[in-house]
Amino acid sequence: MPHRSLSTPLFGLDAVMFHRGQAPAPDKRRRWLHTRAAQIDWKHISAGTPVLASTMRRYLDQCALSLRPSSVALFDTTLRQFAGYLLTHHPGVTAAAHVDREHIEGYKTWLAQRPGYRGKPGLSKPTLGMRMGHLRSFFTRIIEWDYDDAPARVPVYATDRPRLDRPLPKFLDDAQAAAFMNAARDLPDPLDRLIVQVLARTGMRRGELLGLTIDAVVQIGTGYWLRTPVGKLHTDRYIPLHPHVKDLIDDWLAHRASWQSSDLLLLDRGRPIPATRVDKAVHKTAAAAGLGHVHPHQLRHTLATQAINRGMSLEAIAALLGHHDLSMTMVYARIGDRTVADQYFKVTQKIESLYAATQPASTPVTLPAEAAGPAMRAVHAEASKRLLGNGYCARPIELDCRYETICESCTMFFTTIEHRPTIQAQRDDATAKGQTRRAEVYDALLQRLEDTPA
217 and 211 in contact (C-beta within 8 Å)? Predict the structure, then answer.
């Protein structure tokens, strides 16, 4: 049966007349042609072009052996659309071997004229690229597989796919993320709290979250990890589990009804929750935080951006997010590249000294340390020095960073009483220089040592 949606006007009078084999009124002819090609089923294709239908169905059967059903369904839609286009506009083309460049160019034009998302004129570039990519794969593979019904060469070129924009991932900045997480802690619904906290603190995809099972939390060594199910990239992985998220999951499982037979972690009234339930939890949190629209995947982008801006390596981020290769992770390096930032500020200091030297004499000038005398450089360097565990950081105080206490701030960081003198010295150094954020970190470590039984 044809794929239908009762919420769309495509199945109005035009579709009824089409299924009766009647043409619509002249003013609806163009839309009817689009509808006929888009909604045609394999029964009609087989009746009109049995050879082409047989080739396409054989190809889809092979795809079903190695690809996900959702991917095969997309291929199916593309091939039906293309077959419907040929039946309507090129009825003489009855086999894949008859398809040439003219037919592909006509199909591209036909696609570009179709209504897009929510009735917007024209399909989006990603959709156009997807359709042309499906066709290119179809012709490439049936030639490689030596099908009898195959053209002499692939009629779809790589350049038929429109070049897509590469926008940066949308993420929450630090202030927005803080507001979002504060709102998440105050959500009245425990399921909402669990959904949002797991997404935000693990960087999981929505589908991975929905696939979590009740035994997903595992202990490895002294820490707890969250095992993600096999998902989008056909792999599973372990994610370090934040203690707060571990507590939320434990509390959720403790109050889970014993009669529920499903092994899924997230259930609502005994039933698996839909993807829209995840979206609503995130939207509810964003509204409470006074933010605009936030989608679940944006939390994944936010965690990756926060991690790379605070010194986490690309390799570690790729492992955390489950990326197959670093090319997927490099998109976040475009947001916060520490090497670029460090070199930029290094060069900026020299440029600023040039600007300062050319200012009018009446303008007060504060020279950087390297442009001052030896005594001033010594004073500036001493003020900038920050005591670290194994030495000092001499980064200029104007370019202060947050990396010097990144390990001490990590939930996986442990210390013992023999390190107390070093921590105390670091705390005193931070207090003397008015670095309250560093001082708070070391105060917390010292307090942890005080609370640890001897």
Answer: no
Same domain, 178 and 293: yes
Query: Distance between CA 351 and CA 349 in Å, rounded?
Result: 5
Please say whether the beta carbons of 446 and 427 come within 8 A: yes
How far apart CA 429 and CA 444 sit, in angstroms, is 15
The predicted model scores a pTM of: 0.53
On whether residue 420 sits in a domain, the answer given is: yes
- What pLDDT is stored for residue 172 in this prediction? 85
Number of domains in the chain: 3
Domain limit, last residue, from 249, 264, 297: 297
User: Mind listing the pLDDT tens digit for each residue in 349-398?
Assistant: 677 666 665 555 444 444 444 444 444 444 444 555 666 666 766 655 54
CA nearest neighbour of 54 among 146, 156, 149, 151? 149
Q: Check whether 327 has a pLDDT greater than 80.
A: no
Q: How many other C-beta atoms lie within 10 A of the C-beta of residue 28? A: 15
> CB count, 10 Å around CB of 416?
8
d(CA 248, CA 243): 9
Query: What's 182's domain CATH number?
Result: 1.10.443.10
**Is 30 part of any domain?**
no
Q: Is residue 445 domain-resident?
A: yes
Q: What tens digit of pLDDT does each residue of 12-61 get?
A: 334 334 333 444 443 344 443 444 445 688 999 999 999 999 999 999 99
Q: Are residues 192 and 285 in the same domain?
A: yes
Burial grade of 129 (CB within 10 A; 0-12, 13-18, 19 or more): middle
| 377 is a domain residue | no
* Residue span of the structural domain in which 60 resides: 40-160
Confidence of residue 267 (pLDDT cuts 50, 70, 90): confident
Q: Are 210 and 113 part of one and the same domain? A: no
The mean per-residue pLDDT over the stretch 149-158 comes to 95
Question: Same domain for 148 and 180?
Answer: no
